[in-house]
Amino acid sequence: MTEFTPFQSALGGAIIGFSALWLWLSLGRIAGISGILGSVVSGAPRERHWRMAFLVGLMGTPLIATAIGLAPSLHFPVTSPPVLIAAGLLVGFGTRLGSGCTSGHGICGISRLSPRSIAATLTFMAVAFVMVFFTHHLITGFGV
Amino acid sequence: MIRNVFGLLAGCLFSIGLMISHMIDPAKVLNFLDVAGRWDPSLAFVMAAGIPVAATGYAIAKRRSAPLCDTAFPVLPRGDLDRKLIIGAVLFGAGWGLAGFCPGPALAALPLAFGHVVPFVIAMIIGMALVPLVSPLLFPKHDPALVKRQELLR
Lengths: 144, 154
What we know:
The complex is a heterodimer.
Chain A: H1 6-26, H2 33-38, H3 45-67, H4 81-97, H5 102-111, H6 115-138
Chain B: H1 2-21, H2 26-33, H3 44-62, H4 83-99, H5 103-109, H6 114-138, H7 144-153
Helix pairs in contact in B: 5-6
C-alpha cells in the first residue's frame, strides 16, 4: 500500500516539465532519458558531453539528497533477478526501438502534441496496465 | 562548456522532480498501474502537471528563432505512426509493468539502492545496445535517415 500523494506528485511533475522546458529553450533538445542514455556513447562529442552532464545531474542529485537527509525511501516489490533482467531488456530495447519513454514521449511529445508520441504513450500505458493485471491478479510468483 | 552546464542543471531538476513526485519509487509505479488492486492514482498528477509546464516551453520556443545555445531549433519527426514505434512501445510497456522501472527513475534510483537496481540497469543498457544490431534485420525497409534524426533528438 502506498500513500496518495497528489500534491507532491504534481509538484514533482511540474519540476520535470520545467526540466524539459529548460532543455528545449537552452539547447533545443528533448528531455528524453532513453534517448539521452542510449546515444551518450554514440554521436558527436558536442552531443555526447551535455548528455553526460545531464546523467551526472540525474544520478548525482539523489546522492546529495541522501547526504542532507532528503532522499525518498524506495520500495522494491519485485526483487527476482530474472524478472528484473527481463524487464530491463524489454525497457531498453523497447524505448530505443520506439524512440522514447515516459519522458520523451509521455511528457515532451504530448506537450508538443506529436501524434507519434500520443500513440506511443497510450500504447505503453495500456500494455503496462495489462501487465500489472496479469502479474498481480492472474498469476503468482512475481514477489508482489 | 555552457551547454554542459545547462545539461547538468536539466538533469538535476529532472532528478529532483522524480524524487519529489515519488516516480522514483517502483512500489508507487506498480500501485499506479494496479487499477484492479491497490490503486494509487498519484502518478497521474506527474503527467497532469508536467505536460502544461513543458507545453509552455514549446509555446515560448515558437516565438523565438533559436534556443540559447544553438542556431536553430531542430525539426522533430512529425511523421506517421510506424510499426517500430508501436512495437517498441508495447515492449517498453511490458517491461515497465513487470518491474515498475522506466529509464529515468531507474538511473536516479541506482545510487540510492545499487544492489536492487543494477541488474535492471545493466539489462536496460544491453537492450538499448541491441536495437541498432537487430532493428535493420526486423525492419529492413525503414528509412535510415529518419532513424538517424530521431537518435539525435531523443
